[in-house]
Amino acid sequence: MSKNLILFFFGLSLFSICSCSKPDCTTALPPPDYFLLQIQDTTGNNLIGTTYTDSSYKLTGDNYEAFVSPEPTGPQYMLRIHPMELKNGEDYYLKLSDADSDTLSVVYSVKEDECFTSFILTSVVYNGEDFGADRPVIVEKK
Questions:
Q1: Which pTM value belongs to this model?
Q2: Is residue 142 predicted with pLDDT exceeding 90?
């Protein structure tokens, strides 16, 4: 009897180890493929939705053009940026108005796991100043 019990627990342990080795990708949710960018003035006031009120803003670079829409996040608006569409570390130009374009550069690494490919944000450089990688990314426009 004890030999059968030992074999049963050995088999159960082996089954548990084997069944936990791979995640179930059919039920897993992918991580976000974007980050939110908030643009503030030097006193901390949000500029998207107040000073800049367009329904979208043009983001351009070498052979790249996209329109970024403001996204409401509580009482403020932020811009949703998809870094994996951008070349890592290259400069892009964000047209906020006819008279105002800013420079944006994003540095990230790519992480591939068994279910998804995602990005790890390393830094966001806005008009030459590195604002880090905290989310949401809050930049100060001088």
A1: 0.77
A2: no
Strands (E), the chain: 35-40, 57-61, 64-68, 70-73, 76-81, 91-97, 100-112, 117-126, 129-130, 137-140
Query: What is the distance, to the nearest Å, from the Cα of residue 28 to the centroid of all Cα atoms in its chain?
Result: 18
DSSP 7: H
Distance of alpha carbon 91 from alpha carbon 86, whole angstroms: 9
- The pLDDT of residue 122 is above 70: yes
Q: What's the rounded Cα separation, in Å, for the pair 132 and 71?
A: 21
Among residues of the chain, what percentage have pLDDT more than 70?
85
pLDDT at 19: 53
Which residues, including other chains, have CB under 8 Å from residue 100's CB and lie 6 or more apart? Answer: 52
**Which element (helix H / strand E) includes 6?**
helix 2-19
